[in-house]
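Structure (tokenized):
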């Protein structure tokens, strides 16, 4: 549904290339008869209101140059995905071509801190480690280009394999085996990190991120994305997640910051993890209620965890009983065969 002639032409060209049956309308009254029966609903960025009591659109389509407003509109309309044309043309063609595939692939789980230093990276690493222990094919993705390189937490900066700069120009369909066979491993799982060096890495376009995560979804049972809190990370990585875990310390200011961040997240199932000591188990339900989120666990605040992350010893800490109990509980609550 769009009244933008250029957007309509771009979408029709892509749909025709993959043999998709596309019906185009310019307003909601014409869309109503097909809205709930269509396999996929594509919405142009010129549309500001949806038909009442109808499902959320599958993809919000926009054009290059619309900036962050496109992701803000996607969140407001409840879109499942956002695609910027013409850059995302190859991804959209791939997505439309797979629309008849009954197997959606693995679960893409985003982990994000409600405030700085909340423990999102630690949570992501420990979840990936525990999932691997249970035999789940797991990929840990570093979604923070300004975070210094998640590989340093794993002491795996010398592990052979691709990093994000090697995939900066990726687009369209990436072979599942091609990706999984090219990634480094640590702790029993594969990982894709930004380099842990001082050198400036090339920018990775959102289309490349989407292409990589689509291949990851097809090649792994669980993909855990450590999402940075910056606008770039939210726009590039959060929108490709099926579910999100919001990690926050058991503190008032952290809860306020988390509430603000929630307004910027895409409309996917989101749950809360509270970081704290044993006494935080009492505060956690209250914080979850105030945020309107289900509580998925309390991340144990172990002495020396920050130093362990600095020294690349997070995987060693991840073997502790308290950590394993926490991670296993979270993975069980996620369902979807996570463990």
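Design, position by position:
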């Amino acid at each position: 549904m769009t009244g933008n002639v250029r957007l309509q032409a771009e979408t029709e060209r892509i749909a025709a290339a993959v043999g998709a049956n596309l019906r185009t309308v310019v307003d909601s009254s014409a869309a109503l008869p097909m809205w709930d029966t269509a396999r996929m609903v594509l919405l142009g960025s010129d549309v500001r209101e949806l038909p009442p009591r109808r499902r959320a659109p599958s993809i919000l389509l926009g054009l290059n140059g619309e900036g962050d407003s496109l992701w803000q509109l996607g969140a407001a309309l409840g879109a499942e995905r956002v695609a910027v044309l013409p850059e995302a043309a190859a991804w959209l063609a791939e997505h439309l071509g797979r629309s008849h595939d009954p197997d959606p692939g693995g679960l893409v789980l985003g982990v994000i801190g409600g405030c700085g230093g909340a423990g999102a990276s630690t949570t992501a690493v420990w979840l990936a480690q525990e999932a691997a222990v249970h035999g789940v094919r797991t990929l840990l993705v570093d979604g923070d280009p300004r975070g210094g390189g998640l590989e340093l937490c794993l002491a795996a900066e010398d592990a052979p394999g691709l990093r994000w700069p090697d995939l900066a120009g990726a687009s369209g369909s990436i072979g599942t085996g091609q990706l999984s066979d090219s990634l480094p491993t640590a702790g029993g799982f594969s990982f894709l990190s930004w380099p842990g060096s001082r050198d400036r890495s090339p920018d990775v376009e959102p289309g490349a991120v989407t292409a990589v995560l689509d291949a990851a979804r097809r090649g792994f049972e669980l993909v855990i994305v450590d999402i940075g809190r910056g606008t770039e990370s939210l726009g590039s990585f959060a929108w490709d997640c099926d579910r999100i875990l919001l990690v926050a310390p058991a503190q008032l200011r952290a809860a306020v910051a988390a509430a603000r961040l929630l307004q910027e997240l895409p409309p996917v199932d989101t749950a809360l993890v509270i970081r704290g000591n044993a006494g935080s188990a009492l505060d956690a339900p209250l914080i979850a209620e105030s945020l309107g989120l289900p509580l998925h666990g309390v991340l144990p605040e172990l002495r020396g965890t920050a130093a362990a992350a600095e020294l690349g010893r997070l995987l060693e800490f991840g073997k502790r009983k308290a950590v394993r109990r926490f991670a296993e509980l979270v993975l069980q609550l996620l369902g979807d065969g996570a463990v």
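Reviewer-requested clarification: Residues 120-133 form the longest helix (14 residues). The chain has 13 helices and eleven strands.
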